[in-house]
Design a protein that fits this description.
This protein is an alpha+beta fold. The protein has helices at about 5-20, 35-45, 115-130, 155-160, 165, 220-235, 240-250, 255-260, 265-270, 275-285, 320-335, 360-370, 385-390, 410-415, 425-440; strands spanning about 50-55, 60-65, 75-80, 100, 105, 140-145, 170-175, 180, 185-195, 195-205, 210, 290-295, 305, 305-315, 340-350, 350, 375-380, 395-400, 420-425. Strand 8 (about 180) and strand 9 (about 185-195) form a beta hairpin. The structure holds zinc ion (ZN).
Length: about 450
């Protein structure tokens, strides 16, 4: 691996972290213009043409295209988001925005989600341009804002408006590259699919009255609390998809538990045998999930509330439709279904890219040739990434990366949006090299 490039990835990551592009979901947070400017300065001066987009003030995204030699060859986009989620500083052992290099780890918010990838992609991209390594197809570097709040100031609108500039046949982005040690040896999980989003706002109505006389009243908050309880208790049927089977095949588990994880009859028992974080993941990969996460209601302590709103985070499995979600809600609410008005907050079906692609073969080759070489396994991500916007336009998109064995999957998950987020230099080196290896092989 190239030490010079690793050093560049470390430094760029530190600078991206220090820019604190914290996206709390509000329109004036994020300030991704800072990271867009930083990346532009980093890439500038190599004969590249840039375009920046600012669909919302301050929410800047940047794209650079390195033209290939054959206009008919498929293009590859390296897409990294530049925003990060907020921190609770009290839980951190070091400054979350210091970007400090402590031992062999870079610390700070974004170190694994996903400024590590965004920086390594920029370094690999600049190296290819500087050294004049033109591929057959176009190579695109896309530093995108607002991934952490759903892409409404980023990928979602930009791909709709500027497909002529941002369009690509293949896309690599977060997240993937976590090494696992399965029964048949080392494997690396890359993501090829993600669950759908079906967020709902549930409105429960009642009759207002004086809080001093609650007997026999129709209190919307009391009804809403029963709605919440039923949603929390709802147990939709399990579904064992092909991605889940692949993921289970490489889990380092007792054989009986592993077998049970793909058997709908024994799944509940098997999930009960797992550590809490793995259990939650296993449950989410095999079920449509319902999480009531926000409630608003009531106006005054002495007034019986006549309206309560509940925001419900529903995540759907591949193949599930709007009607399936409505049917789940009716089943969950039972005789209260008629008391609840349901509005859609956001809805995108689950997406998946085929592994029958030259890009998948290239990744398989690159990963098996990398230090500690392993095979790659497709997997499902339960949250949302910007991949879905590319997949919905027909591109093949994977979540990739190449982490060192010092970041086992549980540790990776703990750091993801968690305290003490950090990444080791070896992972940065491996990932930077991965992009170079992919570009070197994809069009051959
Ligand atoms: Zn991310």
């Amino acid at each position: 691996m190239n030490e010079q490039l690793t050093g560049e990835t470390v430094e760029l990551l530190q600078a991206l972290i220090r820019n604190q592009c914290v996206n709390d979901g509000s329109i004036d947070s994020g300030d991704e213009f800072r990271n867009a400017e930083l990346l532009r300065d980093f890439l500038e001066g190599n004969g590249l043409e840039f375009e920046t987009f600012e669909p919302t003030p301050g929410r800047t995204s940047l794209v650079a295209r390195y033209p290939g030699t054959d206009p008919d060859a498929p293009s590859l986009c390296l897409m990294g988001h530049t925003d990060v989620v907020p921190v609770s500083p009290d839980g951190w052992s070091n400054d979350p925005f210091g970007g400090e290099l402590i031992g062999d780890e870079v610390w700070g918010r974004g170190a694994v989600d996903m400024l590590n990838l965004t920086s390594s992609m920029a370094v690999a991209f600049r190296h290819l341009v500087r050294t004049g390594q033109r591929s057959k197809g176009d190579l695109i570097y896309f530093a995108v804002a607002d991934e952490e709040a759903g892409g409404i100031h980023g990928a979602e609108v930009l791909l709709d408006r500027h497909w002529d500039v941002l369009g690509a046949d293949y896309v690599l982005t977060e997240f993937g590259g976590i090494p696992v040690n399965g029964p048949e040896g080392a494997a690396l999980m890359l993501t090829t699919g993600e669950k759908g989003v079906a967020w709902r706002r549930l409105k429960v109505r009642g009759t207002p009255g004086h809080g001093s006389r609650p007997y026999g009243t129709d209190n919307a908050l009391v009804t809403a609390s029963e709605v919440v309880r039923r949603l929390a208790d709802y147990k939709p049927a399990a579904q064992i998809g092909h991605l889940w089977r692949q993921m289970v095949s490489v889990m380092d588990l007792d054989e009986e538990v592993r077998d049970a994880l793909t058997d709908t009859e024994k799944l509940d028992w098997a999930i009960g045998q797992l550590t809490p974080m793995v259990a939650a993941h296993a449950h989410a990969c095999t079920h449509t999930t319902f999480s009531p996460n926000v409630i608003h209601g009531g106006v005054k302590t002495n007034v019986i509330p006549d309206e309560v709103e509940i925001d419900l985070d529903v995540r759907t499995l591949p193949g599930e439709t709007h009607d399936d979600v409505q049917a789940h809600l009716r089943a969950a609410l039972g005789d209260l279904a008629d008391r609840v008005e349901v509005d859609v907050i956001a809805e995108t079906a689950a997406t998946e890219s085929t592994t029958e692609s030259p890009l998948w073969q290239t990744l398989a080759k690159a990963v098996s040739a990398a230090p500690g070489g392993s095979r790659i396994i497709p997997s499902l991500v339960t949250g949302g990434t910007d991949s879905r916007f590319y997949r919905n336009k027909g591109a093949v998109a994977y979540g990739a990366g190449l982490l060192s064995p010092s970041v086992p999957i549980e540790e990776f998950n703990r750091r993801f949006h968690g305290h003490d987020e950090r990444i080791d230099i070896e992972s940065l080196a491996l990932t930077t090299q991965l992009w170079l290896d992919v570009v070197a092989d994809l069009w051959n």
